[in-house]
Sequence to fold (105 residues):
Amino acid sequence: MRRRRAATQGTARRKGTAAKPARGKPSGRVRSAGTSRARRGLPEDVARAAVGHEPAAALGDKVRLDLSVLLDRDQAERLTARAIREGKNLEALVAEILEATSAEG
Fold:
């Protein structure tokens, strides 16, 4: 009778023992070194494609992006206080700051 070979090591093993992965052998998964910028396109084109999947808001050409921002407690309190002083909600203030910043650069 012929013995079956273990699929991972190519050698017979005793009943009840698990096959151990061979050291130094590749896992069989191919990893790319990264996608080149030429293949992805310009950052503006990639951003346009990414934002194109977002649902449009009711206000003209705007889209709704849901973000989670991690801030220090002091920064969050200052930002919230500024929004209260200006009579705006926090979302509107952050959107205004981001729009002003992106218009500069």
Observations:
- The radius of gyration is 27 Å.
- The chain has four helices and no strands.
- The longest helix spans residues 90-104.
- The helical segments are 37-40, 43-51, 73-85, 90-104.
